[in-house]
Automatic annotation (TrEMBL):
Transmembrane region(s): none
Lineage of origin: Eukaryota, Metazoa, Spiralia, Gnathifera, Rotifera
GO MF annotations in UniProt: serine-type endopeptidase activity
Native source species: Rotaria sordida
Peptidase S9 prolyl oligopeptidase catalytic domain ranges (all copies): 464-664
GO biological process: one example: proteolysis
Protein name: Peptidase S9 prolyl oligopeptidase catalytic domain-containing protein
Listed Gene3D superfamilies: alpha/beta hydrolase, TolB, C-terminal domain
Keyword field: Hydrolase
InterPro entries with a match to the protein in the record: 6-blade_b-propeller_TolB-like, AB_hydrolase_fold, Peptidase_S9_cat
Length: 673
């Protein structure tokens, strides 16, 4: 009997992702966006495919899709609006020259299979939405204007000195309308300005029945939550800007209800000052465009709502995370309980619903589990989830390779006997073996969770570590999503110490059960997982090796210079001067003299979430103490080095981390130095 070969390091990173799915208005086609790395050019190939439901065939529209924009069907379904990545050869150093480059919006014709460019000058489109028919588009772009402060007018006095919070120019957004003559495509398009707004626009949506534009406000630096709200503009009176929400939360994923009267949206909040919104898991709401009434949907579900789709009868499908699974639920109305639809154990993503019933495909989604790579699936009936058919095979190679076997693992926290769940990944051929070397891989967030799914990148690399001989534990510590609001909120006021106890309790349990070898322990994580890694190596010398990415070393300085200080405020329970003991008692830098663990560090040079200074502090401290340490800095990269536009960075990160684990993880450095 021929056995499968193990998945190789290079094959792991050749994983394809599916950023978006959408049905055409008549349900005849399914639009599929795929993304996969191109190693020779150090970039990602973002492709757009048109899948014909009846013939069950797909054809390529483009391999140069601009990945950050989701293509949109026109109201008739005859056109698709999209953006192309025409500047992929422009380096980050020269990105400022894009303001002088001719920009285009593209329309793909279903009838002729042609991509038609629409020139819009040097304006870079950020969001796009169709009007009530195929004759016009609305789009937004960043704009700026000079301030009128008299103190700033005299450049001879101020030279190039920057007055913080008093910029010489203010940033906002301009909303444009493009009129398109589909019968005379050679004729120049008419572009007019609808209006300017004094904030950055995150999403844009047109409401035909009310002739209104719906938009979200966003901000670069999140110091308070009331900068993020939903607004409407009446196109009959564009000077009227009406604020629809006052929830002091982050709204995203706007969708229009089937009757055209409500806007559905997801909410993420860190507790509001008005007391109306206090949960921090993702939630689903709707706002009535006509009267501003807000309703919570799926309110009987205490897990994390990671996605949703509207149906023609007014009901909704909800993608709900509970524990390590994401399953599909439905709710008829806000007054009804949600109903779980039984499918496979694992993670469902990006559900899309056709407006018409098709024998082959009226519901599409992305699915994966720890043994099944991501693909796009179709069913005609939601009750047929367990018999859904895959219509893509981008990750088919993974099904021909040996993958680790995994299972959920439970233990009690030593602090208060709270039950904690995690995922155990065993090396191939060693499922439920004992005395294995243990690698603890901690997720970020903390409002996130390790899930029953397969990914192939520099963040979700537990399977790759297991393929390299490690038993891997991914703990869903206090603060993780999918275990109820109470479980999540218990991280507040003890944002580092309490998760740390939860995690070490899991290690102790594995050792007591004889599963993990206490002499071969290693630890790692990225972002908040990096923070916890930095903290835990100051609390115990049991770990032989640590691999930490984009993790803070000192919380006051992080709060002072990061782009999301409200996050630290909430976790710590106040400002640094209000709860100084919480900030200091959980700061790794104050306990560095206890560290005996060789530590590998990575950071993005342009990270504003956890600035690279934090990694410099940690590296300098460990170097001064004589502890083996290595710091890798990825140029021009922000916080998401692992999800950057340069796939080699994530690959190099994990390659070097695996080397570090191999070099130091199997024996104590203290005993060998």
């Amino acid at each position: 009997m021929q056995t499968k070969p193990p998945l190789s390091f290079d094959e792991f990173f050749d994983y394809a992702h599916y950023p978006s799915l959408s049905f055409s208005p008549a349900g005849k086609y399914l639009l599929i966006h795929t993304s996969r790395p191109l190693w020779n050019s150090n970039s990602f190939e973002n492709s757009l495919w048109l899948y014909e439901i009846e013939n069950q065939q797909k054809k390529l529209i483009t391999r140069k899709l601009f990945g950050a924009f989701k293509p949109q069907w026109s109201p008739s379904g005859n056109w698709i609006v999209l953006l192309l990545d025409e500047n992929s050869d422009i380096s980050a150093k020269n990105a400022n020259h894009l303001t002088n480059v001719e920009q285009r919006i593209y329309l793909f014709s279903i009838e002729s299979n042609e991509l038609l460019p629409i020139g819009i000058g040097a304006t870079i489109p950020l969001t796009i939405t169709w009007s009530e028919d195929d004759s016009a588009l609305y789009f937004t772009a960043l704009t700026s204007w000079p301030t009128k402060d008299e103190d700033d007018l005299d450049e001879t006095e101020w030279k190039d000195v920057i007055q913080y919070r008093k910029p010489k120019t203010k940033q906002g957004s301009t909303i444009y309308r493009i009129d398109i003559d589909m019968k005379n495509q050679i004729a120049p398009t008419k572009i007019e300005i609808i209006r300017n707004v004094s904030f950055l626009i995150g999403e844009l949506l047109f409401v035909p029945s009310e002739q209104k534009l719906i938009l979200t406000s966003i901000t670069d630096i999140l110091e308070k939550l009331d900068n993020n709200e939903i607004y409407s503009i009446d196109l009959q009176n564009v000077s009227s800007l009406v604020q629809l929400t006052y929830n002091e939360a982050i709204e995203r994923d706007l969708q229009l209800s089937s009757n055209g009267k409500q806007i559905l949206f997801q909410v993420f909040t860190l507790s509001s000052s008005n007391g109306k919104f206090n949960d921090t898991q993702l939630r689903l709401y709707s706002v009535d465009i006509t009267n501003g009434q807000i309703e919570r949907l799926g309110n009987d579900f205490d897990g994390n709502i990671v996605g949703y789709a509207t149906k023609t009868d007014g009901s909704i499908y909800i993608l709900g995370q509970w524990g390590t699974d994401v399953q599909i639920y439905s709710q008829q109305s806000s007054m009804d309980n949600s109903i779980q639809h039984r499918g496979w154990s694992g993670t469902y993503e990006s559900i899309a619903v056709s407006r018409s019933s098709n024998q082959n495909c009226s519901i599409a989604f992305i699915y994966s589990s720890l043994r099944t790579p991501k693909e796009v699936y179709c069913v005609d009936n939601i009750d047929q989830l367990a018999s859904a058919n895959a219509i893509t095979n981008e990750n088919g190679l993974w099904t021909q390779r040996i993958l680790p076997e995994s299972k959920n693992f439970y233990w009690e926290s030593d602090e208060d006997n709270r039950t904690i769940e995690g995922i155990l990944h065993y090396p191939p051929g060693q499922f439920e073996s004992t005395n294995l070397p243990l690698f603890l891989l901690i997720h970020g967030g903390p409002y996130d969770a390790s899930l029953n799914h397969l990914q192939g990148n520099g963040y979700f690399w537990a399977p790759l570590a297991a393929l390299n001989g490690w038993l891997v534990l991914e703990p869903n510590y206090r603060g993780s999503t999918g275990y109820g609001d109470q479980f999540l909120s218990e991280v507040r006021y003890q944002p580092i110490i309490r998760p740390g106890i939860d995690i070490l309790s899991g290690v102790d349990r594995l050792i007591r059960d004889g599963i993990a070898d206490p002499s071969r322990l290693a630890i790692g994580g990225y972002s908040y997982g990096g923070v916890l890694t930095n903290w835990l190596i100051t609390q115990t010398t049991r770990f032989n090796a640590a691999v930490s990415g984009a993790g803070a070393a000192e919380h006051v300085s992080t709060w002072g210079i990061m782009d999301w200080p409200i996050h630290i405020n909430y976790l710590m329970g106040g400002f640094p001067w209000e709860v100084p003991d919480v900030y200091q008692n959980s700061g790794p830098v104050y306990y560095l003299d206890r560290v005996r663990t060789p530590t590998h560090l990575v950071t993005g040079a342009n990270d504003v979430r956890v600035p690279p200074a934090q990694s410099y502090i940690l590296e300098r401290g460990l170097h001064s103490l004589g502890v083996p340490v290595q710091l890798l800095i990825f140029p021009n990269e922000g916080h998401s080095v692992i999800n950057s536009n340069e796939p080699w960075y994530g690959k190099i990160k994990v390659r070097e981390e695996l080397k570090w684990l191999q070099q130091y993880g199997h024996q104590s450095w203290i005993k060998t130095k």
